[in-house]
């Protein structure tokens, strides 16, 4: 039981660190959001009065007249009530509403493609590591090319080949704009058609890591004594592969989920930009370009929450499937 | 990284035992120890070194050989020709010239971030694990927190808050290093914990050596392959992250990198206009350079995890046996044509 408590405790600390980081970044860095916004306003010919300055400061939640500690307490308090401020670029929509609209797109896209990539990669990795010396195994180093390809460049390449030259898929967007979003067959079909290229990009770019990790673990596992014992018992190779080798070799891949998820989320943020996909990554970049600081911080918080949550679930599951982790702590 | 292979050629294809034997013959234990740290030359390692070498050379010498990358001409968006090997951009700038300067920029940031991140991960990983107790607990908590916070969104938010004038090369490098050291630190911590409990480290501590000396002289040499591999990964990760950051217009304002090129290509509608010569080369260079570094890492992995090396040697022997069997089969086929195919099938 203490294993689970420790894990939950750790993620609580990580969550607090992320929240505090989010609070500290705008206050520690040289640029002042209020000044940047006002400078933009002046460039467009607006006049800036002290009242306008004060209003902007209040709108952005950074009233510098208060002591830092009070600001921090109020920031946490607002978060508890789900108040992330008001988006400037989607004014007057609150940040939570803007994020709420875009987050299902990202969760479905990134979630599905990560699961597909993990299953395919681990499966292929187990197979390749199991049969060393085949032509497939000698191709393994070539998968490093896939792992080193920038996500967004792969996205550009795929769009060029499949959308522009061959014309199989639409260029960009999340669905056909003439349709209204809803749970009908036509809309879902359109969403799948539009989402195929981004998903393919994420799967192709992340599959190499899974494959390589699984293959290397498989190789290490195959020289364990229990594999030899299983062979000596006369078990069929298929049974050894499934019940003895793969099950043990897959553990680091599960434990490494944290790192890979971080990479996939990072990669998909920029991939979404290439496809103008209506997900949370495009919102983040849009917020950066429009100096929409509240939205920027809100999106960062949501992404962090999602990654932390996914990792917590994986860690708890890991404690279940590998009893050693529980025993050691 | 090229110095890694200086002596490796001599030991190519030798088994670990043979290597140890030859090392014993020609020198003391220190030398054979260093020898074991060098990777064995394999075809894939050669491919990796050639990729890294040629791209580095292109980045170092290329800018002296090409013209000014910013010159604007009236030949916009022309494909590859004898005058412009990689065509021109929308405003008639030479893509090859831009590529040379951008490669230099990307390599520069990759190496800077790689060094910074390796230093950070070595400090938090090795020092924390060596000191143990509260410091170790604190450091590994910090490491794990940095590990689960997604890096690029954090970098994007930070870059979004830094005004463009003060967003220089070093700012970006520091931000990238701070967000990317954690995974390596965790691996180093685990390795240090296992090295720290060995007898010779205890002996060194008991004999009154200062802790920095124990770390540098007794522990660090054992971790060198791991650190080398982490450095290689850090360089790849840094080049990729910087490219992503520049691609969305948040890169260093005073430098031109491969990501910046892709940013201009995307904003100059290279994709809808079909100007493949503008956006394919920058990404290809990143991918090939990353591939080269990963291939070098494969060889370093074999030092860290000797099981992988034994596997390769085993496979090599299996291949040789297969070839012999085939030759034999061919021999018998010459005498008895019916026996040929069956022998070959059984060999497979």
TrEMBL record, chain A:
The chain crosses the membrane at residues 103-130, 151-171, 191-212, 249-270, 299-321. It comes from the Bacteria. Its main location: membrane. Residues 103-318 form the ABC transmembrane type-1 domain. PROSITE patterns: ABC_TM1. InterPro entries: MetI-like, MetI-like_sf. PANTHER family: OLIGOPEPTIDE TRANSPORT SYSTEM PERMEASE PROTEIN. This is ABC transporter permease. It comes from Glycomyces buryatensis.
TrEMBL record, chain B:
Belongs to the binding-protein-dependent transport system permease family. Keywords: Cell membrane, Membrane, Transmembrane, Transmembrane helix, Transport. Residues 103-297 form the ABC transmembrane type-1 domain. It holds the Pfam family BPD_transp_1. The lineage of its organism: Bacteria, Bacillati, Actinomycetota, Actinomycetes, Glycomycetales. PROSITE patterns: ABC_TM1. Its main location: membrane. One of its GO terms (cellular component) is plasma membrane. This is ABC transporter permease. The keyword Isomerase does not apply. It is a multi-pass membrane protein. PANTHER family: D,D-DIPEPTIDE TRANSPORT SYSTEM PERMEASE PROTEIN DDPC-RELATED (PTHR43386:SF1), OLIGOPEPTIDE TRANSPORT SYSTEM PERMEASE PROTEIN APPC (PTHR43386). It comes from Glycomyces buryatensis. It is found in: Cell membrane. The chain crosses the membrane at residues 44-66, 109-129, 141-162, 168-188, 231-255, 275-300. GO terms for molecular function: dipeptide transmembrane transporter activity. It comes from the Bacteria. The keyword Membrane applies.
